[in-house]
Amino acid sequence: MTTLDAKLLTREILLGFWKVHILHHAAEHPIIGQWVLSELRRHGYDISPGTLYPLLKRMERNGWLRSEIAVGKGPRRRRYYHLTSRGAAVLNVLRETVVELHREVVEEAAAHAPRKPLRLEAPASVELPAAKKAAPASRKPRRRP
Question: Rounded to two decimals, what is the model's pTM?
Fold first, then answer.
């Protein structure tokens, strides 16, 4: 099997997963970029701010999120992202799609996966009772009359 191209996987697949994740959390509460970065990292995605912030802007341009800048002074005020009604509709469709995709890709695949054979021998540390031990190879089994 060939090695995975991480950039290609990110561009083609994971970016969509991140969007679903962002919409999900924006439905729960307003989000900020730094929080999203830490949340995605918690799930094992090492996403950079240079990837995240353009993604949030695209989602805002698509009408899925709206942002507001926190009151205060300074060039780096927090920008809060809120889910819009259009974003909520997109999230509902995505949730249905994710459920169906999970059913097919995970549950059906597990149901059809070859099962490992059961281990029928006792572990080495378990002593079998004397009656269950096999007869030595040199002895012939008795015949019943």
Answer: 0.70
